[in-house]
Amino acid sequence: MLAETPKAVTPFGGLGSFIAYLQQIGFGLRVAQTLPFPAPTSPNAIPLAHTFTAFFFAVVTGASRFAHTDWLRGDRALHALLGNARFPGDDTVRAFLRRFTQGHIEAFWRPLWRWSLALVTAPPEGFHLDLDSTIFCRGRSERVWPFFVSFGLKVRVRF
User: Phi/psi zone of residue 49: left (φ > 0), alpha (ψ -120 to 50 degrees), beta?
Assistant: First the structure.
């Protein structure tokens, strides 16, 4: 039976556990602390950490262009899950990312990367990373893109 509900519903409800995990580890707070820009002074401005999070979740949900950020702008249930009262549009996200220079990128990503790596505990037997990309080949094939070059790569990472 199909019925209408006044409650907000999102097609991205499966992200709820991922959002809860990010909130548990303090992702939003860490992004806000690490951003190399001063907070906006306008009372109507969207916090910079919210703008970054909007871009992050646009990519997670499949956006491949800035215009796709607007897919999430009308999703009130996702805004509630993220704890964002307002969601930036594609122009706001583009202007935010345009501010980054190479120095800003390093000042932002290096501490964020170190913080994220500190959350990972190595198992006693170490990690095993096996990258095998031999399925990519040159020529016509029904299961691969024709412009990939054939190569095989196996990497073993131990801690």
Answer: alpha
* Single-letter code of the amino acid located at 34: T
Buried b (16+ CB within 10 A) or exposed e, 30-50: bbbebbeeeeeeeeeebbbbb
pLDDT single digits (tens) 93-105 = 999 999 999 999 9
Q: What is the pTM of this model?
A: 0.72
Q: How many CB atoms lie within 10 A of CB 151?
A: 9
Q: Are 31 and 54 in contact (CB under 8 A)?
A: no
- 45-82 residue pLDDT tens: 999 999 999 999 999 988 888 888 888 888 888 888 89
Q: Which of 138, 142, 132 is nearest to 150 (CA)?
A: 138
